[in-house]
Amino acid sequence: MYVLTGYPLNNKVTFSLPSDENFKKQDSLSWEVRYRFFHTEPDSTVMAVMAMQIVYNNDSVVSAIKKVVASGKESVGLKSDSLDIKEIRGFIYSPKRDTLEKGLLLLDSIVLMRYHHTNDTIPGIETEKEDIRESKILAGLLQPVDSFFPEIADIWVGDIRNIEIAELTCMNLFQHLPYAPAKSFQWIADEREYVQTCGFLTIARLLSQKGDMTERTSDEFLDQALCAVHSDKYHVRNAAILAIRKFVAHSEANAFLVCRLTEGWAESKREIEQALYNAVKEEVENLSEQTPLIE
Question: N or C, fewer C-beta in 10 Å, the chain?
Answer without folding.
Answer: C
